[in-house]
Design goal:
This protein is mainly α and about 70 residues long. Helix content is about 70%, strand content about 10%.
């Protein structure tokens, strides 16, 4: 698959680990978003025109948790 192909192109094990963690975080957050996609959302503004839902916040939390842990 594409992740393994990309990992094999990384010049160092440190970069491979970082890429693997980033992919894991993105896939986990994406799964959370898919589960909550057709659900009602509470929407808040994070800027003048930037909308954010509780699902967005949860996905960000998942990403940060995985990247911090790994």
């Amino acid at each position: 698959n594409r992740i393994h192909s990309s990992l094999s192109k990384c010049p160092s094990s440190r970069l491979q680990h970082a890429l693997k963690s980033a992919c894991h975080a993105a896939l986990a957050a994406g799964q959370h978003i898919r589960v909550h996609y057709n659900q009602p959302h509470s929407i808040t503004l994070k800027g003048a025109i930037n909308l954010v839902t509780e699902t967005d916040i949860a996905a960000e939390r998942i990403i940060v948790e995985i990247l911090t842990r790994d």
